[in-house]
Amino acid sequence: MENLSPVQLMSLSIGIEQNQLEAVTKNLSLINQSFDSKLAVETPKEVTVNNFPSIYDVIGGKSANEVTFDVDDDTSKIKKSLVFDGDRTAFKYSADIKIEEEMIRLGEATKAYEASIRLFNISKEMSGKAIQIGSKR
Q: Which tens digit of pLDDT belongs to each residue from 73-122?
């Protein structure tokens, strides 16, 4: 098994945060949509990360194969509403999304994504400086 390098950790982190941003954006787009059938409802997305290592795990040699993340539909988040349309009543289905929770997730994912990008850029600059110092000798 190959050990996970700090650069691979940053790359993995950026990929996960990008998927979380996409999931939250998709969920926010579903807030005001309703459907006539439960099967037609676009379900909210949920990103699950398993075994994400800390930098200490990376230094200690945690394997890249142990880290996984999944983007799944959360089918438990469908709500049913009774709608009155003139003299007719009908059921409408929609994704049960709480805007407050999604906005918090959006803020967390954005900040984590920005931090990962900053860390990646700093690492790139440090490598460039090390090459410059090495070429002057």
A: 777 778 888 888 788 888 888 888 888 988 998 998 889 888 888 888 88
**Reduced to 3 states, what is the DSSP secondary structure of residue 42?**
coil
Helices (H), the chain: 6-29, 55-60, 99-135
Q: Where are the domains of the chain?
A: 6-33+44-72+99-124
Task: Give residue-wise pLDDT tens across range 38-61.
Answer: 888 888 888 777 766 666 666 666
User: What is the three-state SS of 48-59?
Assistant: EEECCCCHHHHH
Residue pair 46/74 in contact (Cβ under 8 Å)? The answer is: yes
As a whole number of angstroms, the distance between CA 54 and CA 60 comes to 10
Let me know: does 82 contact 89? Beta carbons within 8 Å.
yes
List C-alpha distances in Å: 40 to 7, 29, 78, 83, 92: 41, 15, 11, 17, 11
Q: What is the pTM of this model?
A: 0.71
